[in-house]
Amino acid sequence: MNKRKRSLWARLFLAAIDKLALKFARRLSSEFKRFWTQAEKQYDGGLLSLSDDLQISHAANTIMILDELVTDTSKVFSVYTIPKIPTIDAANDSDFLAQGMVETLKKQSAQTATAVALTTLQRAQAIVARGIEQGLSQTDISKQLVQQVNISRARAVMIARTEVHNASNAVTYARAERAATELDEVVMLEWIATNDARVRLYRDWE
After folding, report:
1. Alpha helices (runs of H) in 3-81, residue ranges in sequence order
2. pLDDT tens-place string over residues 40-72
3. Radius of gyration of the chain from Cα atoms?
4. Closest to 121 in 3D by CA, of 132, 111, 129
5. Interacting residues of 169 by C-beta distance below 8 A, sequence separation 6+
6. What digits encode the pLDDT tens for the residues 107-132?
7. Residue 177 and residue 171: Cα distance in Å, rounded?
8. Which terminus of the chain is more exposed, N or C, with fewer CB under 10 A?
9. Are 144 and 51 in contact (CB under 8 A)?
10. Angstrom distance (rounded) from CA 79 to CA 88
11. Phi, psi (5° rounding) for residue 89?
């Protein structure tokens, strides 16, 4: 590909990532909203003691969302048009490269989801403990719990974008490795900048 085609391909690649990230950011944001709404309802004025059901369901839902993120991202980028690079069939059990890669990604996403859920729980407990230490009323502490709904939107976007990037890069790299074997060609990695608002100028790194 010439420089113009590489730049166009990079933009299309990032557009696919953005579409997936937006989809799962909304789902994560919805789950965070559910958690914080329930946490506020369960707060009774003392140290926060969330029900086992809320803790378990939040962890399970987060794991499910990131698991589906890996599945969808793998399907999109396993067949994404890249010159000379063979596709991999993430939906085909006989494609052992694809299945091994997807299972590895899902294990990693499960660990990430567990950590995300734990961080949410710890944040809720910290808000209540800090509020009590500052002498805030139950009403004021409850308001702070509800305010986390808005803060969690940005967190959901960050998590979704990071996980989609990780999965798409893993799939693309796996396809490049397959190309090196099946086509007997040297595969080289190249950094392609889109030259838009998402890319910082070189001097910004200094």
Report:
1. 3-42, 52-78
2. 999 988 888 889 999 999 999 999 999 999 999
3. 21
4. 129
5. none
6. 999 999 999 999 999 999 999 999 99
7. 10
8. C
9. no
10. 7
11. -100, 95
